[in-house]
Amino acid sequence: MLASTSTSSRRSRTRTRRTVARAALGLAALATVTSAAQFEPPNDQVLLGFWFDSAQPYSDTPSAINNNLGFNVPVFQMAQAIPLPPFDWVTGAGGPAPENQIEKSATDAAVFLTVYPVDGFQTVTDDDFIALGKQILDYQVNLNRTVFLRYAPEMQGTWMKYGMQPQAFNQSWHDMYTLVKSVAPETIMVWAPNTPQGYPYGQQGTQYNALSAVDKALLDTNNNGQLDAGDDALAPYYPGDDVVDWIGLSIYYKGIPSDTQNTIQPNGYCANVISGTNPESGDAITPWYGPYCDQKPDKACMFAEAGAAYHVNDAGTATQAALQQAWLKDCVTNSSMLDAFPRIKLYMQFEYEKTETANNGQDDLRDYRLLNVTDVRQELAADLQSLGTRFSWAQSRAPPTSISSPGAPAATNSAGTSIIQAITATTRPRPTTFPSLFGSTSDGTQRAEWAELGIMVAAGVVGAWTVMRTL
C-alpha cells in the first residue's frame, strides 16, 4: 500500500511507470498522426452534457432530464470520492457513483465521472487507482459506455482539501493516469482547472506562505517573490500533453458587480473569460482557450461544469428566465460562440440548486438549473432545435439484461472513430428479466440471487419448525 511505503520508493516507482507510459505513447505517436482528441465528435458537432442532483429533495435523474429537454443527452456527470467509501445500507451514502441511473435512461449516453480525493492526495493508494480503473473498465466493457474521468478538478483552490498543491497534484495525476490506463486504457482523461477569474482567489497571504518552497516557486510564475494576479493560474498544474486527453474548465456567471444579486451578464462574457480578459474589470487574466485548446489540436476542450446562478433570495428586477436565457444565448447556444471556439466540443450544464459562500462571506442559495423554469426550458429546446445537427444527441437503447458484451469500441483517432460512434454503439439485447437493487443484472446473477433467497427462506422455515418443537 502506498501509505506504508517511503517517499523515495514511491517516487522511484512513479518515475518507472511514467517512463513506460511515455514510451508507449511515443510509439503510438509514430504510428499515427492525430488531428483530433480521443472520441471527439466529428466536424463542427458539439455535445451538451448535464450534471444531475439525485439527492433529496431533488431526486433528479437522466430520464427526467431527457424528458424535460426533449432530447437524449449524450453525457451525464456523476461524482464519487477516492478512496471510495463503503456503501452505507442505512443512509445510502458512499459507494460508487449511481451509474444505474444512466442505464435507466435507456440511452447510450457516456459516463462523465468526477473523482475527488476528498481527504487529500496522501490518502490515495495505488490500490485505490487500480480499483477505480476496474470500475471504469466495467462501465466500458460490460455496460458498453464511453467514460470521461475528471480527477481532482479545480485543483488551484483551497476550497478543495487537495487544492493549491501543484507538486502533489502533478505526482498524483501521473500515478492516476498510469494505473487507471493500465486497467482501462480507453478512459478519456479530463484535466479541468477552475476559471482564472479572481486568481489567486485570496490565497496570496497565509495560505501561500504556508506552502513548501517548491510549491511557492511553482506558483510564482512571474518570479516577483509573491503570488498575485500576474501569475499563471493554470500552468503550474498542467501535468503534460502525454497524460491528458481532454481539457476542461469550470466557468460560471454569478453576477456583476455583486455575486448575491441577479443581474444580466454582459455580452461576450464567456468569450472574454476563456480568451484572457476579466469581463468585470477588463484586466488581463490567464487565457485558457488559446494555450490549451487552439494550440493543442490533439486535445478537445469542454466546459466541465458551467451555468448561470439565479440568486433565490434576491428580490432584484432580473428574473431567472431572463438571467439564464442570457447565459444560453451568450455561452452555449450562440452559433457565433460555437464558430469562434471550435475546439470546445462539450458543454456540461451544472443542473443544481445549492447554497454557496458569497464573496462577502454569507450563505447564498443559487439555482443553476435550466429545466425547472418553463421559459428557460423552452428557450433552450428552441435554440437547440434551431441549430439542427450542430448538437449531437444520444440514441435510445434498451437497458441491459446481461453484463456480457463485445466491449466498447477501440480508443483510436483514426477516421470514423469518434465519441459519437462510441456512445451510440450497442449490441445489448432487450431486457426480459427483473431488475435487481443495482439495476438490471445478468441471468447468472439473478439465479444466484434466487438461490440466496431460497436458502434464507429454507433456513427460516427450519428455524421456525425447531422453535415450535420446543414449545
UniProtKB/TrEMBL annotation:
Keywords annotated in UniProt: Acyltransferase, Glycosidase, Hydrolase, Signal, Transferase
Presence of the UniProt keyword Hydrolase in the record: yes
Record keyword Hydrolase present: yes
GO biological process annotation, one example: substituted mannan metabolic process
Record InterPro entries: GH (IPR017853), GH26_dom (IPR022790), Glyco_hydro_26 (IPR000805)
Active-site residues, record numbering mapped to chain: E154, E305
Range of residues in the leader sequence: 1-36
Example of a GO MF term: mannan endo-1,4-beta-mannosidase activity
GH26 domain sequence ranges: 5-359
Family to which the UniProt record says this protein belongs: Belongs to the glycosyl hydrolase 26 family.
Name of the protein described by the UniProt record: BY PROTMAP: gi|472587347|gb|EMS24846.1| acyltransferase domain-containing protein [Rhodosporidium toruloides NP11] gi|647401276|emb|CDR47404.1| RHTO0S14e03202g1_1 [Rhodosporidium toruloides]
Lineage, broadest ranks: Eukaryota, Fungi, Dikarya, Basidiomycota, Pucciniomycotina
Gene name, Swiss-Prot/TrEMBL: FGENESH: predicted gene_2.632
